């Protein structure tokens, strides 16, 4: 009997496994970025939280200007400022519990500090006395990560391991708009979704990857629209609206902690300074654009809201700024001290134990240093 | 440096079984050991090295990942940061390449960049080398890439017992280990008795597989059996060859190698990887430097040609075989033009 | 004047560049896979096209069984069969014009042959006498690609170059469900969208990557839902419905040719044979599942449709099968001849010219071969 | 092998300007030449090597890509398949690692796998090496990876004139070329006169930068100036050192190197990359083999330590400097224990 002789009509593909298993609608971001400041909902915001955020923002801004100044004084090799992005930085840190982990990119020193890191230790990488200057386990902050997007799979793996251990630990990983183009972004989000790992991805979309504008980076409706392709719900938020970013991230963290899996958050923001102190931003953007964003400054937006609600007067502002100045002065003073470095440490952490070759090389350097010492003694 | 391992159970006969057994014993001994990779779970791996592990320890301990090698190694980094000991399987040598950024920029550097605070006890298992009739991209010998990267240990067994012992040592190591499995030895059989406790080599120790006095063959992994066969054949020519199995490319057991060559005065380095820029350069250079006054002839290299790995039907011409090893031995200036005053 | 003293209320983020630039709705796939066979639309299908597709399907199926048989006879090193996926293979080839390019994965020998490649040359890789056995420029078929998803950026680059040259050439790239997890998939789609490259991505979702089922590969509603994250429109199609796949791909090719940019097509299908002849599929799937998909066989579906419309009788079927048998017999005969190989070719194509080292190595091998020759002569 | 290039226009003074000029001249000479990479367009590259190209030739000829190195190199492969000559910029050495799979599995193999039918004339420009105070991942020397990969040419200039000539030759080559640019020589100045036609070196030719008779320093890229300085300083000690600038690591101009060492009888290999498994292994092994009967002392290597590249404040201890080169020269057994019967 050939198939022509068989009765039966067309049947649909037999297996459901090949067909949509998730409803895509709830995964898609809203069209408008989520906002609280300037909306009716702002009235209900907790004054304590607002003041907490505000203090962090003011000190964060000051930290950015101070660190940039330190590059001019030769005290830092380089500094990628997050001026203009402080709301994202601070909200990312404050949305987490102590037991959670933060996975910052190279620009996210501020988030690391807001999480409790010593401000000088956090600058080790950029000062150049070592790579990671802090113990990642102490504040559960992964090393500031230079190769873009490569820390995202780390966050997924850590969150997955925590979940397997039965710990309700969440990982929050930060990446820029440019970093979303890397394969590691894709692989991290996919692993996170398949494993339902408790991880939150925060994309700080500041419109540029060094000089490359978003339009050359993606043709997507938004970066948040990438979520649905992994089965990950996505939120779009005004990244300069600190309470809004905080709320969205806190919600995502809660969801992850409760076993709901990963969330993708895109925060719309702007890097007001150049890419780093070494960059000349006028080559690729207009003053008008910068000015427009300065008028949407995260610190000012929150300041205005606090003032509107009568939660902040000039004296409070002055007090916060003074605290920030003290922090900056202390940072400057501490950074003006030359770090004490032992060149022999070069050989200490390559492996748990030095290999034979490393022992010989260490001997060589030790002898050279001793000879040089003698030379200067004479 | 040796690791005492007590292994009980039935006797495995092949290297693939010994590797499987090592994974199983390591997982049983330490709940922090997790296996992940493509097809390692339900299927037990395309070479069956992880067979039965998912069944025995559950999907969470032996996990079929999505198909993305950077993701596999990158998530393993995060798992290690949280205290686990991930054992990652790359399905074939060339298919590990997408993970090289994670390997070079993170796995190899994490301990160092964090001043020792964040060691990464990760084992990356990579089936490598040719001789199994694999099509394009299935027979690369990429060990030079790993050797050139400080922060990684690089290990490769040539015998069934070493496969077990070295894999246990790799998983127990607090440093990341690239564990290279010679594909064409997977089915090599041996009398191996896992039921009795035995001493297995630690990482960083070479072994003299055959004592000899005329010259030293320095080799590892898939080329060890070739060299042993060559050494047998060489007896007919009156050469008594010593064969050193490096087992560990990083750290390299220079002392064993150097002691051997200083005694024999002649050396040939043998490996499958392409010669130029391959592991043999380092090995020959080290021997030539450290044995300078003991050498009766230049250190020669017998390696794969400097070509992309050939298609199956031509691989026999590429792989260093017994004849090519013997040819090299013959060129070791047995009647030295040098002592006899001739010019090179 | 501090910001507190300024009037003005909250302003939204100033730049439109940070906001959705594309309407996401048209990019999203339909919920149901597109189908023609068994629907009223089938009546309008061009009989000539249906017969053309049918002939290809029948020969394609036979090619798959013949090639698998050749592995058992030791004439092929390995064969990854596309049995069950012939509709995708054939439609991909027929959707293209001659000047277009096909970028097949390692499983897509059949698509390459349907495009005109010599069936034996197409098997060179799998026979093992060389890697790519054909001239990619002759039929504009890129090398069958073993490292998964790595040929997708090639397709994008080629399509982009063609567009820059003003040529209306389209590239069609094929990848499996597993391959979509690779970073290269992500990067290729993103580049294609940003560059508006004339490229069509065909994902053959056959439910498995070797042993790994789709549910361990992705948590997305569908693989087609990945398109929106790049700003690429996506279509979902019944991959065993040859005219449907052909129509969807043809539409995407037309769109690309007209300057509309890339399209992502997900075809739902099934690999009826094991992953390769070396694989034992019973380890990871049930007979019932296979049986269900056999009942939705692409060849039979089309055969039934042709019969229903009176476009095919038993004689026609017999004729097509005979043609397929002749093709198979010829393939078998040709493959039974040992290929003539020159080992010296190993050194010929590494570079445009042999380097000094390669010349020395070639001399060595030539001497060895001569010695061996002499050995056998004696 | 030389390439005659007619270059007209004002006189560049630095290596970065010469590279820029080479790109501009190549693009003007051949419409198939396309530049792509991160920030290469509007910004002109973070090292300004591509400055002005987008302006002059349009965004389609000099393209700011999305931030994804595998995508950059992978699309370049497709562009080359269609007949273009892509010149790819990796922003920093370590940021090229995501593209290694494309490099190893496709760029290096395409000509070979297609029996010569699909050559890929791609140039991959990679700023490499340290000495500029770069933070983590910004100072890797990854040349060993490319050297170990048959199918790639690997080239690195040490002078302004070579930067121009080698880049033109790389772009003109029908084979893929990894073009390594020593970051710390970007701003090295030289009297270079591009206004007159001049002979520029082809790929595969080393050059003797300084004639000498006591010993040969074998080096390339950023270490060339170091070796020249060391050679000057060595005069005070009575050593007349020869300095060979390899320029091309693949293919290696063995003849020039071997001729030099056979003449001087002593050799030191100098490079920044980590020593173990680094390029120096191949170089030293080749020299030791081919100059065996001419060597008065072992071939020594002066290299970066076998550690991940150090942070800015410690890099001076890591980089092979003049003193370390001189120390090695001093150890070249000037009063050989060997001739005098001593034991090693
Ligand atoms: C893998 C990798 N490629 C390239 C670079 C060089 N680089 C450093 S920052 C940067 C731009 C990053 O843009 P984005 O991700 O948007 O982050 P932002 O700088 O805006 O915070 C580039 C290309 C890098 N660090 N890592
Ligand atoms: C980069 C890479 N990783 C791993 C492999 C090994 N491998 C070959 S086929 C395969 C599964 C592919 O699954 P899918 O993409 O769904 O294609 P299918 O086999 O179903 O056609 C794997 C993992 C490979 N070829 N390339
Ligand atoms: Mg950005
Ligand atoms: Mg599949």
UniProtKB/TrEMBL annotation, chains A, C:
Ranges in a coiled coil: 314-375
Stretches assigned to the Dehydrogenase E1 component domain: 66-341
Positions of region (Disordered): 1-32
Keyword tags: Coiled coil, Oxidoreductase, Pyruvate, Thiamine pyrophosphate
Keyword hit for Oxidoreductase: yes
Pfam family, one: E1_dh
GO biological process: branched-chain amino acid catabolic process
Cofactor(s) required for function per UniProt: thiamine diphosphate
Gene Ontology MF terms: magnesium ion binding; oxidoreductase activity, acting on the aldehyde or oxo group of donors, disulfide as acceptor
UniProt key word Coiled coil: yes
InterPro entries listed in its UniProt record: Alpha-ketoacid_DH_E1_comp, DH_E1, PdhA/BkdA, THDP-binding
NCBIfam families reported in the protein's UniProt record: PDH_E1_alph_x (TIGR03181)
Record-given protein name: Pyruvate dehydrogenase
Taxonomic placement: Bacteria, Bacillati, Actinomycetota, Actinomycetes, Kitasatosporales
UniProtKB/TrEMBL annotation, chains B, D:
Gene Ontology molecular function: branched-chain 2-oxo acid dehydrogenase activity; magnesium ion binding
Any Pfam family the entry gives: Transketolase_C
GO-annotated biological processes: branched-chain amino acid catabolic process; response to nutrient
Organism: Streptomyces caatingaensis
InterPro entries the UniProt entry points to: THDP-binding (IPR029061), Transketo_C/PFOR_II (IPR009014), Transketolase-like_Pyr-bd (IPR005475), Transketolase_C (IPR033248)
KW Oxidoreductase (keyword) present: yes
Cofactor list: thiamine diphosphate
Superkingdom to which the source organism belongs: Bacteria
PANTHER family named in the record: 2-OXOISOVALERATE DEHYDROGENASE SUBUNIT BETA, MITOCHONDRIAL, 2-OXOISOVALERATE DEHYDROGENASE SUBUNIT BETA-RELATED
Keyword Transferase assigned: no
Occurrences of domain Transketolase-like pyrimidine-binding (ranges): 13-188
Enzyme Commission identifier(s): 1.2.4.4
Name of the molecule in the record: 3-methyl-2-oxobutanoate dehydrogenase (2-methylpropanoyl-transferring)
Keywords noted in UniProt: Oxidoreductase
Enzyme class: oxidoreductase
């Amino acid at each position: 009997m050939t198939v022509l002789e068989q009765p039966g009509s067309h049947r649909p593909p037999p297996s459901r496994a090949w067909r949509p298993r998730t409803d895509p609608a709830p995964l898609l971001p809203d069209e408008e970025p989520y906002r609280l400041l300037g909306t009716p909902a702002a009235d209900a915001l907790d004054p304590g939280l607002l003041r907490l955020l505000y203090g962090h923002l003011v000190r964060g801004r000051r930290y950015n200007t101070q660190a940039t100044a330190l590059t001019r004084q030769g005290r830092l090799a380089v500094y990628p400022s997050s001026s203009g992005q402080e709301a994202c930085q601070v909200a990312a840190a404050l949305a987490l519990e102590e037991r959670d982990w933060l996975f910052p990119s190279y620009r996210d020193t501020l988030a690391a500090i807001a999480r409790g890191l010593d401000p000088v230790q956090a600058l080790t990488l950029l000062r150049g006395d070592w790579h990671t200057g802090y113990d990642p386990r102490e504040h559960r902050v992964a090393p500031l990560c230079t190769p873009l997007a490569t820390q995202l799979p780390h966050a997924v793996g850590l969150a997955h391991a925590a979940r397997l251990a039965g710990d309700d630990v969440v990982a929050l990983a930060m990446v820029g708009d440019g970093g979303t183009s890397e394969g590691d972004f894709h692989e991290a989000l996919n692993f996170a979704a398949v494993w339902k790992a408790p991880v939150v991805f925060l994309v700080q979309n500041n419109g540029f990857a060094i000089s490359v504008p978003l339009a050359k980076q993606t043709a997507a409706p938004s970066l948040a629209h990438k979520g649905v392709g992994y089965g990950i719900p996505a939120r779009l938020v005004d990244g300069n609206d600190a309470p809004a970013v905080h709320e969205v991230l806190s919600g995502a963290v809660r969801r992850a902690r409760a076993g709901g899996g990963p969330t993708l958050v895109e925060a719309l923001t702007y890097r007001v300074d150049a890419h780093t102190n070494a960059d000349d931003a006028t080559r690729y953007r207009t003053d008008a654009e910068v000015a427009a964003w300065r008028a949407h400054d995260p610190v000012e937006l929150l300041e205005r809201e606090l003032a509107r609600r009568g939660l902040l007067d000039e004296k409070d502002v002055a007090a916060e700024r003074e605290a920030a100045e003290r922090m900056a002065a202390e940072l400057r003073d501490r950074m003006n001290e030359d770090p004490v470095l032992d060149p022999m440490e070069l050989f200490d952490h390559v492996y748990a134990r030095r290999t034979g070759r490393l022992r010989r090389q260490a001997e060589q350097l030790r002898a050279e240093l001793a000879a040089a010492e003698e030379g200067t003694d004479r | 440096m040796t690791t005492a391992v007590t292994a009980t159970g039935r006797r495995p006969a092949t290297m693939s079984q010994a590797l499987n057994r090592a994974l199983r014993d390591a997982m049983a001994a330490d709940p922090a050991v997790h296996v992940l990779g493509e097809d390692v779970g339900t299927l037990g791996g395309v070479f069956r090295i992880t067979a039965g592990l998912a069944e025995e320890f559950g999907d969470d301990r032996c996990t079929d990942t999505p198909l993305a090698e950077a993701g596999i190694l990158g998530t393993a980094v995060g798992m290690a940061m949280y205290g686990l000991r991930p054992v990652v399987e790359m399905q074939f040598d060339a298919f590990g390449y997408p993970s090289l950024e994670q390997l070079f920029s993170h796995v190899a550097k994490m301990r160092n960049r964090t001043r020792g605070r964040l060691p990464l006890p990760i084992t990356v298992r990579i089936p490598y080398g040719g001789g199994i009739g694999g099509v394009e991209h299935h027979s690369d010998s990429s060990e030079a890439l790993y050797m050139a990267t400080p922060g990684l240990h690089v290990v490769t067994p040539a015998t069934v017992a070493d496969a077990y012992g070295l894999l246990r040592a790799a998983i127990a190591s607090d440093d990341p280990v690239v564990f290279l499995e010679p594909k064409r030895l997977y089915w090599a059989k041996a009398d191996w008795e896992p039921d009795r406790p035995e001493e297995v080599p630690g990482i960083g120790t070479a072994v003299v597989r055959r004592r000899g006095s005329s010259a030293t063959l320095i080799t590892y992994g898939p080329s060890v059996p070739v060299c042993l066969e060559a050494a047998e054949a060489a007896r007919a020519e009156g050469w008594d060859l010593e064969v050193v199995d490096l087992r560990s490319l990083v750290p390299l057991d220079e002392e064993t190698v150097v002691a051997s060559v200083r005694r024999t005065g002649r050396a040939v380095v043998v490996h499958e990887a392409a010669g130029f820029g391959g592991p043999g350069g380092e090995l020959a250079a080290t021997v030539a430097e450290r044995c300078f006054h003991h050498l009766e002839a230049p250190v020669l290299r017998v390696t794969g040609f400097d070509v992309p790995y050939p298609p199956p039907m031509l691989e026999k011409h590429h792989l260093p075989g017994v004849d090519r090893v013997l040819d090299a031995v013959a060129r070791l200036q047995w009647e030295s033009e040098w002592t006899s005053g001739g010019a090179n």
